[in-house]
Amino acid sequence: MSEKRLRIAIQKSGRLSEGSFELLKKCGLTISRGKDKLFGRVRELPIDVLLLRDDDIPAFVADDACDIGIVGENVFEEERLSETHEAPAKEVMRLGFARCQLKLAAPKGWTFDGALMLEGKRIATSYPALTKAWLAREGVSAHVVTMKGSVEVAPRLKIADAVCDIVSTGATLDANGLAPVAMVFESEALLIRNANAFTSEKQEVFEALLTRIKGVITSRDAKYVMMNAPRAAAPAIAEYLPGADAPTILELAGDSDKVAIHAVCRESVFWDTLEELKKLGASAILVLPIEKMMA
Ligand code: PRP
Ligand code: ZN
Prior knowledge:
Strand order of the largest sheet: 2-3-4-1-5-12-6
Number of strands: 16
CATH topology of the largest domain: D-Maltodextrin-Binding Protein, domain 2
Strand content: 25-35%
Bound molecules: 1-O-pyrophosphono-5-O-phosphono-alpha-D-ribofuranose, zinc ion
CATH architecture of the largest domain: 3-Layer(aba) Sandwich
Helix content: 25-40%
Distance between the termini: 34 Å
């Protein structure tokens, strides 16, 4: 492997890939790759991109085939609990996208009144380690049947009584006559890295990338909010603005009773927020996206 170019593993297609590509793009990075290619090169920084199946990413990073990776917490945690690597990949930061849940689901007819109902039952899953850990926490002993895919058909085929599978919209469960009964694990995208120290060249690239990713994440929900308001209402408005530092308050030309209030809000600004600001006396409210932000 190149000693200089940092290698990042991302999912080729699936739940994480769109968000992963979007994150790199927002970091100002463009990837050149041909159709179907499993390999890409970043133009702006010495970074190579490897496109893989999500399940392979933790092992690729642990084995030093890649330096870093973007992977679902569900896949990362499953790999960590299975203890297949002496020096497993390490979590660097949570990325806040591709949220989903690993849930226990049973045929719709079941009236579920607690985990003990699963005693002695067969549960099909692609996440045996996470499922077993949950069963142990609940004090239940059940048979875990590992399947690589199509877990949702297991009850219909009488391979299992229930399943433990990833749910995001719930459409897959629904289409297969299943309903979620318990939450096992909550997941989002993670940035992970190899446990060994990087060469100084790679470390430099890694830090540059990390700075950009942090900038993207902190500016993701952030908005620049501007409005006019009666001077007397300014303190209440400043108090109400979601996740804002002290706002800038400027006198409006030709009207000493009115001020313009400008603030960076670090949390989501909803329609409800605007309604409330209006009630507090604000008018001409503008909410602008922030493209980049650095702490
Ligand atoms: C999961 C799960 C379902 C689907 C559920 O697969 O096994 O197929 O997502 O999503 P829904 O609730 O929106 O219908 P995943 O995308 O993780 O694919 P993989 O197992 O092939 O990685
Ligand atoms: Zn997968």
